[in-house]
Amino acid sequence: MSDLFTLTITPATHDLGGFKVRRTLPSKPRTMVGPFIFVDQFGPAQLDPGQGMDVRPHPHINLATVTYLFGGAIDHRDSLGTFTTIEPGAVNLMTAGRGIVHSERSPASERTGGAVMSGMQTWLALPDGKEEIDPAFEHVPAGDLPIINDGSVQARVIMGSLWGRTAPTTCHAETIYADIQLQPGASLPIDAGADERAVVVALGDASLDGEPLELYTLYLLKPGVPMTLRSTSGARVMLLGGEAFRTSRHVWWNFVSSSRDRINQAKHDWKDGRFPHVPGEGGEFIPLPEVPLTVSYP
Questions:
Q1: How far are the Cα atoms of 22, 208, 218 from residue 231, in angstroms, in the given order?
Q2: What is the DSSP string of 76-87?
Q3: Is 250 within 8 Å of 260 (Cβ atoms)?
Q4: Max alpha carbon distance in the chain (Å)?
Q5: Which residues lie closer than 8 Å to 290 by C-beta, 6 or more apart?
Q6: How crowded is residue 228: how many other Cβ atoms within 10 Å of its Cβ?
Q7: Each residue of 230-257: pLDDT tens digit?
Q8: At a CB cut-off of 8 Å and minimum separation 6, what does 196 contact?
Q9: Which residues are registered as beta bridge partners of 71?
Q10: Using one digit for the tens of pLDDT, what is the confidence trace for 197-238?
Q11: H-helix or E-strand containing 110?
């Protein structure tokens, strides 16, 4: 193990027919990095003409979902009555709290030539005392997120404060999240301030203080150690983390909670139809699985 990293997590890869999803959290060696309890990268890929993503309505509790795209677009609908289309560089933050239901589908305009699938889907566990807050939805346009740009580096702050800039996105716990694009030969310092930090190379090649980083792998960085991110031929790297949680969280299907009993209650509520419905979805939903994956995809 490098002196820079406390843990390296190779993703579990799922081939969904038209695109691949690579999951690094949760994993057996590590459940969380800061508040992040779920980290997926999907694509890049383009589906066949007429095809798109169709994730039917499904429930969440005690977490916040963060959707961030590199390419394509996704229509979001939820049980609060929200409808919005997310595009690259913007962020959707959906706070489940005591319970929310949502769907994610490719817009009709994306399906004509075959939907583009490329981006990040992450979940944030809600901190102690906030797990059962009211559900909410927040869309922050790309133009409202701060960008650090020196000509060879473009870093967008998605959540929290980095490099002296602060994103307007709501943080229920101390959170850092950034999309870093490096031109060939470029470099950027990685601050040491957060309790827990990790990087994932989404595209291209990158290194930290001379240590090469494998594509799609999550590297948990040693706390309190400043580092410099570099790329030889160009890269896109996600930086994520935040405050360390004192109490553990459990994950079952789309449910996250500090209480197994709360998750079991959510199972019964979904099976018995006690969650709210999503307007405009015609009563469609994903049934409660017998043996779940962590999350459902189309």
A1: 22, 9, 17
A2: EEETTS-EEEE-
A3: yes
A4: 56
A5: none
A6: 12
A7: 999 999 999 999 999 999 999 999 999 9
A8: 32, 33, 34, 220, 223, 241, 242, 243, 244
A9: 118
A10: 999 999 999 999 999 999 999 999 999 999 999 999 999 999
A11: helix 108-111
